[in-house]
Automatic annotation (TrEMBL):
One of its GO terms (cellular component) is glutamyl-tRNA(Gln) amidotransferase complex. The keyword Nucleotide-binding applies. Keywords: ATP-binding, Ligase, Nucleotide-binding, Protein biosynthesis, Transferase. PANTHER family: GLUTAMYL-TRNA(GLN) AMIDOTRANSFERASE SUBUNIT A, TRANSAMIDASE. Belongs to the amidase family. GatA subfamily. This is Glutamyl-tRNA(Gln) amidotransferase subunit A. The lineage of its organism: Bacteria, Candidatus Yanofskyibacteriota. Heterotrimer of A, B and C subunits. It catalyses: L-glutamyl-tRNA(Gln) + L-glutamine + ATP + H2O = L-glutaminyl-tRNA(Gln) + L-glutamate + ADP + phosphate + H(+). PROSITE patterns: AMIDASES. The gene is gatA.
């Protein structure tokens, strides 16, 4: 069975062990064999007409991503292809332009295998809310793969793609990476352009890679990041080589372990693996410090006021008039109501209503404004912590992957699965999840989350890479 990383394919190309066409054919063949059961891909894309001449056409023959097959989450636009965002509201929508990250990957010479399944409009953390059926976890097809980038995570874990792109609003790259036993990186807010990403919550969303290794994540980030005139939130920072310092020893780095991460709700098997992995960091010469994030307990409630508020605004553009699903009715109002009623599933409707309520007259100050103030306090907690430590570590999720259908009727239980991931999105910080072994009871992967200060992905990836080598 094929089981490549970006690095191993680069090496194979240089040795002449295989050609880009052979690699592409291998992955397309495996998708044909496996995807019907997993439901990781929603749309398969045609390969370049002449991949043999493609190296010259891209103008970037030295790129480490040249000829590397990639999967793209179905809320990232690729010109001329169907982009559904996992929702009936966009089931027949054809993208009219490339997202900035797609332009960058094209220039780097990556090949696009297809668009991957996701929760409806990126709302969910199990990929069960997709209008096109759930994606299954490739390690156990009775289990969820996580979400909302579940299709992308499953594609990489099942060797249906070498790497994938996802979007992370409250953990939607890191959480499915943890549950599928791969690497998921959320860059700092503003590091990667959101132009061409179907917006969920604009002050939270960030595109990030899902890969087999931390080195591969660094390689993809090298291509993705940079200022974009089409996204005013991207920063004008020098683009560094994130692979350059991966081997630099981490001895002496200060590692913070928040005491708030180890409270009721964290499963025993996850806690055991996380504490053992912290010991590994100590063995690598890191200085372990217990720290406190006093407002951590308010992060989830804050997130589920602010994100639905932004959702209610962003999803108002799906009105059945300009594009997407449309129902012909006797009046304009009925067209709006029926198109949105049929187009959105239960979870987007729930969040639209929550957000509209939080923003309504008489409740704005009590909910939305107060949540913004708590968001600032959560950011300050991290700022204070990073004066004492270089990185912060802990669990990515409170439990390992659970059975499909097990929690689908309990939204609160599903929201609690995001408890360790949403604080980073509130603060705009970079985070990465790497696998640190399987739970003793479930025998499913446990994700170890590493958090760095804003725009310090170099340290983040360096720690992840060296810990990864030690865990292997």
């Amino acid at each position: 069975m094929i089981n490549h990383t970006i690095a191993s394919i680069q090496e194979g190309f240089s040795r002449g062990s295989f050609s880009p066409q052979e690699i592409l054919d291998d992955y397309r063949k495996r998708i044909g064999e496996v995807n019907k059961n997993l439901n990781a891909f929603l749309t398969l894309l045609d390969p370049p007409s002449d991949i043999g001449n493609w190296k010259m056409e891209t103008g970037n023959s030295e790129s480490p991503l040249w000829g590397i097959p990639a999967a793209i989450k179905d809320n990232i636009l690729i010109e001329g292809t169907r982009t559904t965002a996992g929702s009936n509201i966009l089931k027949n929508y054809i993208s009219s332009y490339d997202a900035t990250v797609i332009k960058k990957l094209r220039q780097a010479g990556a090949t696009f295998l297809g668009k991957t399944n996701m929760d409806d409009a990126a709302m969910g953390n199990t990929t069960e809310s997709s209008a096109f059926g759930p994606t299954k976890n490739p390690l156990d097809d009775k289990m969820i793969p996580g979400g909302s980038s579940g299709g992308s995570a499953a594609a990489v874990a099942a060797n249906l793609a070498v790497f994938a792109l996802g979007s992370d609003t409250g953990g939607s790259v890191r959480q499915p990476a943890a549950m599928c036993g791969i690497v998921g990186l959320k860059p700092t807010y503003g590091r990667v352009s959101r132009h061409g990403l179907i917006a969920m919550a604009s002050s939270f969303d960030q595109i990030g890679p899902l890969t087999k290794t931390a080195r591969d994540a660094a390689t993809v980030l090298n291509v993705l990041c940079g200022h974009d005139i089409f996204d005013s939130t991207t920063v004008q920072k020098e683009v560094v080589d994130f692979t350059a310092n991966l081997e630099k020893p981490i001895k002496g780095l200060r590692v913070g372990v928040p005491k708030e991460f180890f409270r009721a709700g964290l499963s025993a098997e996850v806690e055991e693996k996380i504490r053992a992995t912290v010991k590994k960091l100590e063995g690598l010469g890191c200085i372990i410090k217990e720290i406190s994030l006093p407002n951590f307990e308010y992060a989830l409630a804050t997130y589920y006021i602010l994100v639905p508020s932004e959702v209610s605004a962003n999803l108002s553009r799906f009105d059945g008039i300009r594009y997407g699903h449309s129902v012909k009715s006797d009046s304009l109002l009925e067209t709006y109501i029926q198109s949105r009623s049929e187009g959105f599933g239960p979870e987007p409707k729930r969040r639209i209503m929550l957000g509209a309520y939080a923003l309504s007259a008489g409740y704005y100050d009590a909910y939305y404004l107060k949540a913004q103030k708590v968001r600032a306090l959560i950011k300050k907690d991290f700022d204070d912590a990073f004066e004492r430590v270089d990185v912060i570590v802990g669990p990515t999720t409170p439990s390992t992957a659970f059975k499909i259908g097990e929690k689908i009727d309990d939204p609160l239980a599903l929201y609690l699965e995001d408890i360790y991931t949403v604080p980073l999105n509130l603060a705009g910080l970079p985070g990465i999840s790497i696998p640190c072994g399987n739970g003793a009871k479930s025998n499913m992967p446990v994700g170890f989350q590493i958090i760095a200060n804003s725009f310090d992905e170099q340290t983040l990836l360096r720690v992840a890479h060296q810990l990864e080598q030690n865990l292997k």
